[in-house]
Design brief:
The complex is a heterodimer. By secondary structure, chain A is of the alpha/beta class. Chain A contains 13 helices and twelve strands. Classes of the chains: A alpha/beta, B alpha+beta.
Chain lengths: 397, 255
Amino acid sequence: MLDSSGENMVDVAMVGAGQTKFGNHPLGLKGMWAEAIQKAIQSVDNGFDSPDVEEAFIGSIAFGGSQLGNTAALLTEHSGMEGVSVRRVENACASSGFALRDAWMAIKSGQADVVVAGGIEKMNDLSASRKRYWLGVSGDTEWERLAGLTFPGTYALTARRYFHEFESTHDDLVHVSVKNHMHGFENEVAHLRKQVSFEKAQSGFMVADPLTLYDCCPTSDGASAVILVADHLAHKFTDTPVWVKGSGAGSDHLALHDRPSITQLRATQSAAAKAYKTAGISASDVDLAEVHDCFTIAEVLATEDLGFAGRGLGGTFAREGEGRRNEGSVTINASGGLKSKGHPLGATGTGQAVEIFKQLRHQVEPERQVRGAEIGLTHNVGGSGATCAVHIFGRER
Amino acid sequence: MACSQYGPNWAGPDGDRLTVLIALLKEIPAESINLNGFEEHLEYPPSVSVQAIIEASTSWIVDEDTGMYLHTDKEAFCVAVSPSKDVPNWPEFETQEYDKTMQTELNDQWKIEVEGVSQGAYVSQAQHTISVPSRLGLKAQIDGERMVWPPRQLNAMAQRIDTEGMQLTETATILTWTRLSAAGAPSEFSSRAPILDGVATVLVEFDEGPKGVFMMADDESGKLEIDERVDFVFRRLYGQDGMMHYGLKAVLSKS
């Protein structure tokens, strides 16, 4: 039972995790999900039988509308989980972050012992006009979108205001882009595996002033899945589970104009506070964090809202390389982040968890390993900050 | 009488007879007015009635029994308000230079938007109609000590907020801005974005406190600064499902 302090009789372990390559995937929804879940199952050291799954939470916006209804039932039927209690979870780009949280809560509450959480999105086989419509469905349709704004615009408004309020310029965002491309270069599942020079990232074509192409994540296909179990089952599956030590979620006004400040995300601050509390740690304990850099300015804000940098110092944090792998105080986006690894909207959150799982178990490409990683964090944001889920993982229970 | 700022032959990238009319009605003391068949001269049917637009955007009341008549010219983007039912003698209006290629391209895009199969976002007609006083007239609600705009049904304590409120002053301060390329613009605007060299959008704060997002109008200079003041004008927003949708856009304040 969960009491108000977060103390709980059941701890939650992640015993398997897998994902497809993010990018232009040749398979459709069923094929991508099958690939992700198979990889998750194959990653379980002592073997795993899919019929043992009791609940499944699958995050997706159902981009394109090809399977808006009963998405989860279709996918689980095609992946060895017939008859399982399933649902699609939707919180825009935070869909699978919330699927992960729901899976965690299902085990914490004692309602289930073996749960799958995942996400999926197929974005790149649509016409340009259809894609452009679907990319803008998660803002305030009436008062933002139909007033001329989609997310590049929303984050551009945020960036310009951030430069106005603090000692920061677009060059700070360029540092984020260069870093994440460097981190993603060796990531075998990353969408954009190319490094970019500072000068090149400075001079991309303008998407939404002041944000250029190199400030924006790509649209990607992809699927990801993790397997969570109750503590008493963990060592049946592996001797090295990754423990879900903390979880927190929050929300804020959907529309930018309703927020008291547009240069911080209250949803992140709220989610992080709860996650740190349930994990019993603080930001300084985190070794690596996969944060939601849908646009470079989003990473700058995230470093502040998660407590890695002080208010207004996120730009300085980026400029001074504090988030670079094995160089700074904490590695930010060792995977390459959304910027390089890619952003299949519904799959991003559990994709972040897959990265943390591999990093904490030393199963990533050697060049990408974060040395001495004990505590990892995932940060998954819906839209421009209407929703946020933060999870904390550890090698120790 | 009034004519488009570009002269009788074009009402600008986002203008038409209705936008010219609203601009005129805002300049003269409000009375009641007889539409006199005005709506039949619009290129595209508006998403809500001309009466609703006039009464939300201005202090004028539409009354088919009144003796003040609306007139417009079939060939020109000119409008007049007159106590006579006879068609007025239209004067020679000044014509401003404009790019005729742009005019043709934009007219074509408006037609495609209105008449094509929409790939755009959708707001229910009910919601769209309920929001008209707020969208066109900047009517705000009062919730305790604060003003609420855009409108809400319930406040943070799940209590009903009065629909009756007050109007925001039609001027605000730019908090931040951006210019969207076609790649960055919503699909409802993306076909016109390259013709216009982008879509400028501002986040503004009204003097009474509420904030909002608006597209800019008449911003040929392309230069915007935080803390600049803006006023608001009634213009076309986008076409969809056979109708033209109107709203307010921001213009740099002249004062």
